[in-house]
Amino acid sequence: MTLRFNEDGTFRVLQMADIQDKPEVNRDTIRLIKAAIREAKPDLVVLTGDQIRGYDPAYIDTFLRRRGEKPGARVRLITEVEARIYGVKRRYPEAAELAERMADRLEDSGHTAPAVLTGDEPPSIDELMAESAGKVRRTIQAFLQPVVDAGVPFAVTYGNHDFQCGILPDEQDDMYRELPGCMNPVASSARPTADAVDTADGLSRDGMASQTPDKPGTPSPAESLGFEPGTFALPIESADGSGRIAMAVMMVNSGDYAGKPEENDAEYPAYIANSRGLDLADSDGYGTPSPEAIAWLGGVQHELGARNGDGQPVPAIAFQHIPPQEFYDCLTEVPAWTPNAVEGARTHAGHCYVLNDVVCRPGSRLGEAIGCADENVGQVEAMRQAGGYFALFCGHDHKNAFVGHVHGMDLGYAPTCGFECYGPKSRLRGVRLFEFHESDPAAYETRMLTWGDLIGRYSRNELRVFVEDHCITDAIGLRNELRRPSVFTTLVGLGAAALAGITAMITRLFKR
Fold it and tell me: Staple 28 to which of 55, 355, 373, 419, CB 3.0 to 4.6 Å?
């Protein structure tokens, strides 16, 4: 499928971030997606990670806190709590082997094994993984149905929760490609060749897939722009039908979590002692794009320039899940008592911020700390050096919806468009619309299409949304809540009312 500017010189993109839903996708999420597509009439939809609520109780038996762990071995506390609420019970594949050994020992000693040890065996891990795969497929089909029905092509990258269901991005990539309109190519890093070329030989120095015409399995021109699941380029051709690439949309897999499972486990006591360093997944911080993916950001511009015949980088916007540290440069540090200030996370903890109005577009909103990696791997600088890149947009931080111009490019967010995860008030959840012009793609327009704009003020379950909006998981969250004038005023009012009640009670006692 070829993406091309329209005859009027425009190309419209919808960014959907952090759907983060369970197999029975929330009806309000579907309703918002339908309304946004109807309003925007997009030429492309991009999904920027955390489509799957990998920590949902539906995946409790195959949950992965980190890659490389045993499925279901280290389940998050929030998953255990929700499982109890919804009556979800864990099934342990190892229980079959244990029960068989115990039954044999009883029989060897002349006893009859109870039925509980000789009854039906629990499902195997392969059966549980297949079950989880079916749930993921059902989720994908549900939230993408409005996109498919509208005949809009879509592209997908991944976040830090997608893989936690136990189904990794390469397998999820295959599921997305089952649906019409999926633009995700078969990644070059996942495409075998007849000679089983290893990774080092299969990549050139600039991170592009090597193309050897005489070898079977050589990628097509479209596939050669794909590097790994979630990292690929989508060229947008000129409206005149010449085939010239007028712009590109880059999807980047920003990783999930830093460190290795054994390293995180060893450092866990230190995080307990320092809650500022502890996130809900007990992690060693968030991940980053791989060094190879960052090299690819430059290499793919060489490829696109070569296709145009002039060797020049093409105007490009990148989409990924986790923001790099440079997003903090869109903010201004302020005193801790500043209303609506948010406290930074991890490496930025102890500092409070508000939006820098000098660099941020009108209508921008900062609702929480920027959840970037502890390490700056130089992605933004690599994009600047490559040329052509004019913007980088992310998801991940569900309450943020700002756009700032720093380091020679725009850095921006779309908030969550889902209703099964934490986030802002219902009326502020939504998708981000972009309109690009072939004459100057960098002079694009963008705005939020929110639930409040498209549907109304309230969702079907405002109690849940209220809890998600005011969810406090640590001391930083508590301080951020107290900086919200509406929360502070409410608490002061309640305190004053309580004090007045106590005073009246004491007065009556003394009068007696």
Answer: 419
